[in-house]
Amino acid sequence: MWSPTEEEKYGVVICSFRGAVPQGLVLELGETVQILEKCEGWYRGVSIRKPNVKGIFPANYIHLKKAIVSNKGQYETVVPLEDSVVTEVTATLQEWAVLWKQLYVKHKVDLFYKLRHVMNELIDLRRQLLSGHLTQDQVREVKRHLTVRLDWGNEHLGLDLVPRKDFEVVDSDQISVSDLYKMHLSSRHSVQQSTSQVDTIRQRHGEACRMPVPHHFFLSLKSFTYNTIGEDTDVFFSLYDVREGKQISERFMVRLNKNGGPRNPEKIDRMCALFTDLSSKDMKRDLYIVAHVIRIGRMLLNDSKKGPPHLHYRRPYGCAVLSIMDVLQSISEIKEEKDFVLKVYTCNNENEWCQIHENIIRKSSTKYTAPSSNYGLIISLQLLRGDMEQVRRENPMIFNRGVSVTRKLGFPDVIMPGDIRNDLYLTLEKGDFERGGKSVQKNIEVTMYVLYADGEILKDCISLGSGEPSRSAYHSFVLYHNNSPRWGEIIKLPIPIDRFRGSHLRFEFRHCSTKDKGEKKLFGFAFTPLMRDDGTTLSDDIHELYVYKCDENSTFNNHALYLGLPCCKEDYNGCPNIPSSLIFQRSTKETFSVSTQLSSTKLTQNVDLLALLKWKAYPDRVMDILGRLRHVSGEEIVKFLQDILDTLFVVLDDNTEKYGLLVFQSLVFIINLLRDSKYFHFRPVMDTYIQKHFAGALAYKELIRCLKWYMDRSAELVRQDHIQEAMRALEYLFKFIVQSRILYSRATCGMEEEQFRSSIQELFQSIRFVLSLDSRSSETLIFTQAALLNSFPAIFDELLQMFTVQEVAEFVRGTLGSMPSTVHIGQSMDVVKLQSIARTVDSRLFSFSESRRILLPVVLHHIHLHLRQQKELLICSGILSSIFSIIKTSSLEGDVVEEVEMMVESLLDVLLQTLLTIMSKSQSQEAVRGQRCPQCTAEITGEYVSCLLSLLRQMSDTHFQHLLDNFQSKDELKEFLLKIFCVFRNLMKMSVFPRDWMVMRLLTSNIIVTTVQYLSSALHKNFTETDFDFKVWNSYFSLAVLFINQPSLQLENATPAKRKKILDKYGDMRVMMAYELFSMWQNLGEHKIHFIPGMIGPFLGVTLVPQPEVRNIMIPIFHDMMDWEQRKNGNFKQVEAELIDKLDSLVSEGKGDENYRELFSLLTQLFGPYPSLLEKIEQETWRETGISFVTSVTRLMERLLDYRDCMKGDETENKKIGCTVNLMNFYKSEINKEEMYIRYIHKLCDMHLQAENYTEAAFTLLLYCELLQWEDRPLREFLHYPSQSEWQRKEGLCRKIIHYFNKGKSWEFGIPLCRELAIQYESLYDYQSLSWIRKMEATYYDNIMEQQRLEPEFFRIGFYGRKFPFFLRNKEYVCRGHDYERLEAFQQRMLSEFPQAIAMQHPNHPDDSILQCDAQYLQIYAVTPIPDNIDVLQMDRVPDRIKSFYRVNNIRKFRYDRPFHKGPKDKENEFKSLWIERTTLTLTHSLPGISRWFEVERRELVEVSPLENAIQVVENKNQELRTLISQYQHKQMHGNINLLSMCLNGVIDAAVNGGIARYQEAFFDKDYITKHPGDAEKITQLKELMQEQVHVLGVGLAVHEKFVHPEMRPLHKKLIDQFQMMRSSLYHELPGLDKLSPACSGTSTPRSNVLVSHGPMSPESIKLVHRHSPLNLLGSVRHSSSSLSSHTSSETGNLVILTDSSVGETAEDMYHMQASPSTSSLSSTHSAPSQMINSAPSSARVLVKGAGLTTLEAEALYLSTEQIQHGRQPCKLSHAAPTNVPHLCPGGATSRGSPSLPDKYRHSREIMMLLPTHRDRPSSAMYPAAIMENGQPPNFQRAFIQQMIGPCKPCSDPNLSVAEKVPSSPYPCITHQSAVWPRWQQLHFIRQCQQWCLLFE
Q1: Which of 1447, 1575, 1455, 1607 is nearest to 1510 (CA)?
Q2: Which of 816, 1438, 1536, 1879 has the most CB atoms in a 10 Å sphere around its CB?
């Protein structure tokens, strides 16, 4: 039985549950669930992620957590009872987990790993927080780390900024908008500062008392690796200031043994110190770390004789230095220790030991010796910042290592009140001693003791350095043989304060003998007391002490014996009468100097201070003593603060009249001293004194009197320094006054209360008097008033102790009211005045509602004045923020209606005006007036926006009603509405708050929609009927549209959790505003016509918001618009035109909603389901036009959607261009919007220019040019064109188009435009321009003849499937390829442009299953262009460079061929049944044009019979021979005759070895003639062609004989012999052939005239021949005046077969014949660019190896190819060249770019027919075509082998079986299988190659 749960309400899934039971709820690990019911081990409930789906799940899969349940029952809500930070971390980690995986998918690997690390840290910190074992400080620290990481992750993932207070997310309902803004701002400025932000907001107007941040150096000695000493050492580290030449810190001492380790084993890894309290100023000093090394051992290190081994001396050894300036940057950047090595240098002369560090720093290398190695002291350094408490908290590990705190000499910048010190630093400076009758100088050691008054030696009062315990005696180091030693060693004397008075220091001097006994002999001593007789301590100075003689027998037991003696010169002067019979005699020639520095908070060296504290001893000097207090240093005063204050008030009580003013001045001096940042921390000491120790009950009277006396004199005095100081001390003066009055009142039971009140009132009158004075003429008075205003707010708290809140508020109001109202008293005074008001607002007084009602009017009055003048905006905004913050807090506890009413009346209008001014200046990038510091304009805008929003949020219905009722006229109301609507609009347009401030943006939207709801009723009430105002209504509608379109409100883009959160808190505010908009539209009535068509675009933008309810609300508005325009005009052309314009701008200009992928579906929904616009239209009388309108818009949307998708940035240029062409044509042909059409012309032109398609860019601009006429009609400014005449614009366009044609090398297209311009210039007699254009035209003709141009390839591409964009879907195009681009490259480009597409592997037309599927299929193959201009191509004398252009330009028809067998196949001769299927494609436009590709509009398919095919083969070969022979006859080919040799050999040898005999067998057979009587004419034609071929060969041999080189004569003879054999073999079939043949003798026949008549070739054509040379065959380029193309290869085993092609066919031949495909694979091998000559060696070896040649023969063949190529400049090898080794395809027509065979066909018999086309293009739909140049197919593979073995068979048709494949040419073929290629053919091939090699050699 299911029962509701009582305790089990909330839990976490600890094991995934698949829900494999009825009503099971699928749960994932980590999900949270809300439990509703339970039953026998099962729960029923919902997942928090999907709260609408209920289900059951096992109880043991859930870990229960405590939770708070509200609204118990069916609709109860559950909130986990855990720390809010833990809850936030949990939710954030779940959100990040999804985004984290996406980072990996998007290849953002760096952020992926960083985020993983942070997530692991968050999980660990969360675990610590949940453990419950942390202290409060630790919890706070963990929360700080958590929030820092949360903010970091949110920022880097682009998530929303989370405003926090005390690490917890704030509730925006509980704080003011201003405070929320401040929180966002502080989080934005520094993610690291995630401590409480709002706590510091109130201090923003406080005085700048920023604490200086102390710095600390952590130093750790890792090791001392300089091991040559062999004795114990002491190392002393200190900080040294080079410029001042002194140490600035105590010394850190490390005691090491002779092995370099610590002498105390416990010190291992603990030899570290912290040099503390370095100020920022210190960090800029030239500081060094100095390490002095003192050894403990023999007198001389290397002389064992010097001194006995049992006596050890402290002896100087070496020194090391490290510049802090050099390492500061490196240790500042890292938060860990960094190691450094310090070289230890030894001193050359011990006498200069005290200066060794200076010498090393100055690099005086003659005075020290560098170590022999780089080893030395290895230390690590780390820079720490913050006070010591913070450093201890943040670096506990350092202090756990027993770090030695090493203090700065003297006091730090900030003296903490509890910092008690009593340290005397003594420096052993120098001594001068007598030799004492010795031949050598002494080795002097100084021993020092601290003795008390009773002669006792004080224990542990001498410290050589931090890090080691104090000792009772000090022994100096010994300088060898030196009577004038300089030590410079600093010793710290931490003497207890109670032992200081009466103590003295005794210095004993001993000579350390190095003889055998080695005793230390005492020869003198010196002493000095620590405190003088007047009570002051030893002054900070150098003290030269007297040296007294003595010996070891002298006794110091009775110290009084020498204490009576003078210790120094000053002491001697004080006691001249010294008996001469004393035991100790002074050595007058010997001196000893020490210097001291006292750092004590208890002892003073100042005589004036002591005199004040003991003033009763000097009654006559009291006034002088009080006057001299100003000269006492601040350190001394704060050390004795309480004693000084007690003394001052005792003096005041002693004689008020006499000393009152002086005591007052002294008190002011001390109070102002505590304002210094160095002593600021002593203020609490002063407060404590006033509260607990102050006893001056009568002092208040004198203090009030003196204060009033000062203020009253402020109008008279010129010098007001004392007055200003008194004003600055006002706070503490009032504290003393109030505390004194409390003490007096307590002692007298409240006597003289009235006198006190009246005196305070009089004092305030004086204050008002000072403030009311006109200070414009007196700068001194300004400073006095400023000092008073600055201090004034600080006295409120003191007054509240004696007066009521209302009384104090009245005092303050009167004082603030006395300030001049004008804002022209001077900017500095304005600032001070506002700062005083700001402190008043921030004071405790203002937090009382009673005082606020009194103070608010005067505060608002001053702010209003400044805002009106636009002055001091930043300070004013701060004041307003504070006011709103206080009012918000008060509104949660009580009623604030009255205060809000005051603020609305005073501020609302001026706030709106201020914001409008700031926003307008912000948009024009001007600085905002009133900024005293360079603050960001956006920040000021944000401040005022938050203030305005705070005010609007506090306003209730009553406030809005009063506001609207208070307007005197409708004009005032109109102005107000326009202002507030304008501000709201700017808020949304300017994006005042950054994108990630989602909390702030949503709150802003909520306040705006609430305010608009209040204001819309006023708008409807006042401006609808007769008072209709278009401007206000238009402003309102614009605001509503902007509001609904805000990105922050588009909940569809948010995560489900975020969406739910927003909807729960605010609802969908777009719907709220849409209802408001609809309601107001309905209220317009007949005035709706004013907003047609103006509001169509904006309303359309609203409709495109992907929110169904919003669209349903907006549809009636569209219907209304159409209806109203229909009524008015009888149509809705305006609505349609405007809708089209706005749709275009929304999409193409990137405006509106971002989610354009759903645009079409949105429109369908708009015009589709009920309540659809279509249904409403169908009920109207204007139904037909309405439906037409919807259809037109729908079709436009299809194209716009494609355009938007393509323009998103990642798409390729092809798609963008195609899409733009599609849209452009739509605007021209279907909508007829010329302006939009022209815009898209220019967009398309820009795209072409970006892609460097200059020819296409020219054709595109030509479209616009053709719209213009040569007229003087003026044209307005449009796009980038200025206002000009139509003639001028057309001229400019023509020039630009000509320029683009020139860059695209399409000079033939530019020439007509040159002529057109020339006609215009000539008609205007503009001969200068005419000359220029004629020269341009001439240049173009030169370029045509001289410059090389590349012939492009053409590719047919089909786009099949519904996933393609609309403009491509199920259509086929022909594309003009880029330069050097072959089929494979084109195919790869297409597949990269459409990465989801699948390449089809057959050329057949796809069926419906492919056309209608939700996928993308690409079908790509090369096609051959069919030129239109046949006449040019048939003219013999036209240079090939000209013909080349017409072969590939202005092409509208293309074709491709596919071979197939019809009927039974003859195994003996396959040519009998081989047919060709020829497809011709006709395009919509010629190529080139405005695009590189155009759609196919018509397909034609014809079949070519075997006989017709044979005719074409022979005819093409004849044409090739004729052209080549003609070129040699007319000497267009010079020098090298190899090309003609190879061509003749290829035909003659093929004929001898089978050749065209196969055609004879196939078609001259009687059976064939009988069966095909209709082919008689064609058979005759074939016979004539064969006869012609024999004749042409004869002429060719004659020409060959004429030009052949003597070395090539054997070849020529061989050709003649073979030609005779060929004629003989054809004799029987073709009688009369022998009559045609005097060719052998070289004589000419009538037919040769045909050859002679051919026109001469251009000189460049000579280069063309080389493409048939063996080298080109092996690796290369086709050189031509029109094209330079590369080859591709097809793998078929390891054998390459190359085909020949005809040279110079007739035009008809050119487009009737084409090579056949070799495989059915779509993919092709890589197309190599043209620069591949250098790849020849590898290619050659593959070729000859496949042909059966030996390696030697292969090398010979390769060498021969190089010789043939002599004189040609080699091209550079392409990077892809090595992979493009040509493989011979069995029929030769190397289908360049042909794909490799499928495995099952790879070793099958392959055949290919030679279809002698003018271009080597595959006839199959699947294979690449070569570029035609000079009518010759370019494939280098053809030339060599073809000349030897003749034409070959075609590659197989993909649709035929292996057995059915038949040859299409009568020439033998070569394959990789010897069974297919007979052995005799292989041998013949080898023999031919060998002959060639011999000939070439």
Answers
A1: 1575
A2: 816
User: 255: helix, coil or strand?
Assistant: strand
Residue 388, burial from CB neighbour count under 10 angstroms (0-12, 13-18, 19+): middle
> Degrees (nearest 5) of the Cα angle 1686, 1690, 1696?
95
Place of tokens 């995630």: 194
Measured between alpha carbons, how far is 1676 from 995 in angstroms, rounded to an integer? 58
β-bridge partners, 1018: none
The greatest distance separating any two alpha carbons of the chain, rounded to the nearest whole angstrom, comes to 167
**Alpha carbon distance 1771, 1678 (integer Å):** 11
Return the beta strands (E) in 485-541 as ranges. 486-493, 504-512, 520-529
Separation of alpha carbons 1188 and 1178, rounded Å: 11
CB-based contact 1458:1717 (threshold 8 Å) = yes
* Residue 934 in this model has a pLDDT that exceeds 60: no
Are the C-beta atoms of residues 1787 and 1699 closer than 8 Å to each other?
yes
Q: Give the other-Cβ count within 10 Å of 141's Cβ.
A: 16
Count other Cβ atoms within 10 Å, centred on residue 161: 22
Q: How far is CA 329 from the centre of its chain?
A: 25
Q: Dump the DSSP string for 789-838.
A: HHHGGGGHHHHTTTS-HHHHHHHHHHHHHTS-S-S-S-HHHHHHHHHHHH
Summarised one tens digit per residue, pLDDT across range 1620-1647 is 888 887 765 665 444 444 434 333 333 3
| Banded model confidence at residue 120, pLDDT cuts 50, 70, 90 | very high
Do 1461 and 1860 contact (CB within 8 A), yes or no? yes
pLDDT at 1830: 38
Angle at 1891 between CA 1889 and CA 1894, to 5 degrees: 110
Distance CA 1715, CA 502 (A): 122
* Distance in angstroms (rounded) separating the CA atoms of residues 1046 and 1068: 12
Q: What is the pTM of this model?
A: 0.58
Instruction: Please tell me what DSSP assigns to residue 1275.
Output: E
Using DSSP, state whether 1685 is helix, strand or coil. Answer: strand
- The answer to whether residues 151 and 160 touch, using CB atoms and an 8 Å cutoff, is no
Give the strand pairing for 520-529 and 504-512: antiparallel
- Map tokens 């090699």 to a residue: 1893
HSE-CB at 754 with a 13 A cutoff on CA atoms is: 0
Start-to-end CA span in the chain (Å)? 106
Q: What is the pLDDT of residue 1176?
A: 57
Q: How far is CA 1559 from CA 868, 1512, 1555, 1634, 1846, in A?
A: 105, 12, 8, 20, 13
Q: What is the mean pLDDT of residues 1520-1530?
A: 80
Is 80 exceeded by the pLDDT of residue 365? yes
Residue 490 is classified by DSSP as E
- H or E element that contains 1595: helix 1576-1603
pLDDT at 1149: 56
1806 Cβ contact list (under 8 Å, min separation 6): 1692, 1718, 1785, 1786, 1787, 1797, 1851, 1852, 1861, 1869, 1871
The whole-angstrom separation of Cα 1528 and Cα 1657 is 9
Backbone CA torsion sign across 1392, 1398, 1403, 1408: negative
Q: Does residue 1724 surpass a pLDDT of 50?
A: no
Is 294's pLDDT higher than 90? yes
**Token pair 């492919």 is at which residue?**
1410
Are 428 and 487 in contact by the 8 Å Cβ rule? The answer is: yes
What whole-number percentage of the chain has pLDDT above 70?
76
- Centroid of chain to Cα 641: 56
Q: What is the spatial distance between Cα 1642 and Cα 1654, in angstroms, rounded to a whole number?
A: 19
